[in-house]
Automatic annotation (TrEMBL):
It comes from Acuticoccus sediminis. PANTHER family: D,D-DIPEPTIDE TRANSPORT SYSTEM PERMEASE PROTEIN DDPC-RELATED (PTHR43386:SF1), OLIGOPEPTIDE TRANSPORT SYSTEM PERMEASE PROTEIN APPC (PTHR43386). It is found in: Cell membrane. The lineage of its organism: Bacteria, Pseudomonadati, Pseudomonadota, Alphaproteobacteria, Hyphomicrobiales. The keyword Membrane applies. InterPro entries: BP-dependent_transpt_permease, MetI-like, MetI-like_sf. Belongs to the binding-protein-dependent transport system permease family. Gene3D superfamilies: MetI-like. The chain crosses the membrane at residues 59-77, 84-104, 124-152, 173-193, 199-225, 246-267. Its main location: membrane. This is ABC transporter permease. It comes from the Bacteria.
Length: 291
């Protein structure tokens, strides 16, 4: 009888193709964002008062804003800033949550109870409200935004990793590793962590979309980046006074946020199909009732 982890069944060909297509789309978007300085026709901070609120043209493909700044250039640089901050938040939250979850799930007992009470204490408050309080207390700036978002997002990783760790501890291959004298850290790093990495990747994909929306929301409220910075949420905030007369100033960054969030969620769905984690990480209806 083999003590190795069970193999997952092969995926349908359609799911594989969808995952590949979404991966290519995300890679293309990442390449565009990375090449923002080369693709942007103008400096995002350069003003041209004589051409303020100009319509789209060859010089300004998406027009200009109220300060005469190129809307396309600000959109590209704003995409790079938003995506980089969102990735930083997700990676930091995942690292903290995974460490806490692995420790609680492996040690159990008092450590597990204390860690889970802390997680429940943080999770009981609305995430956006806590982020607003932390960002407002620390002041305007990227550092404040990152700290505020990490402080509310690490708990979801800790809870899921802790639960999966406790499940993996009962597997035959983990008990076999104990029987041959493997140490606790080796079992965690070589056996448990690789088996929870897939669901963690799925959770990170879904969490990325929420972080992007939260970051844009904080910037829109004036608690994110500094005024004048090219960032999607800040662009919407600066254009709201011209929303009725020049709706494209709001629609361009707003549609960019919507498109990217939808793309990330679709990628999360494809990853969930790959790792068979529907019941764990995404909503699912069972017999007409929420899971």
């Amino acid at each position: 009888m083999s003590l190795a982890p069970p193999r997952r069944p092969a995926l349908p060909r359609l799911a594989v193709r969808r995952a590949g297509a979404l991966s290519i789309a995300v890679a293309v978007l990442a390449a565009v964002v990375a090449a923002a300085p080369l693709l942007a026709p103008h400096d995002p901070a350069q003003t041209d008062i004589l051409n303020r609120l100009a319509a789209p043209s060859w010089t300004y493909p998406l027009g200009t804003d109220a300060m005469g700044r190129c809307l396309l250039s600000r959109l590209l640089f704003g995409a790079r800033l938003t995506i980089c901050v969102a990735l930083l938040v997700v990676l930091a939250a995942a690292a903290i949550g995974t460490l806490v979850g692995l420790t609680a799930g492996t040690l159990g007992g008092t450590a597990d109870r204390v860690a889970m009470r802390v997680v429940e204490g943080v999770s009981i408050f609305p995430a956006l409200a806590v982020s607003l309080v932390i960002a407002g207390s620390l002041g305007i700036g990227l550092t404040s935004v990152v700290i505020a978002l990490v402080a509310v997002h690490w708990t979801e990783y800790a809870r899921i990793v802790r639960n999966m760790t406790m499940v993996e501890r009962a597997r035959p291959y983990v008990m076999a590793a104990h029987a041959i004298g493997a140490t606790g850290p080796r079992i965690v790093l070589r056996h448990i962590l690789p088996n929870v990495a897939g669901p963690l990747l799925v959770l990170g994909a879904f969490s990325l979309s929420f972080v992007i929306l939260a970051f844009a929301g904080l910037s829109f409220l004036g608690l994110g980046v500094e005024p004048g910075t090219a960032e999607w949420g800040r662009m919407i905030a600066e254009a709201r006074t011209h929303m009725r007369t020049y709706p494209r100033l709001v629609l361009v960054p707003g549609l960019s946020i919507m498109t990217f969030v939808i793309l990330v969620n679709l990628m999360g769905d494809a990853l969930a199909d790959r790792w068979r984690v529907d019941q764990v990480l995404r909503p699912r209806l069972r017999k007409g009732k929420p899971a």
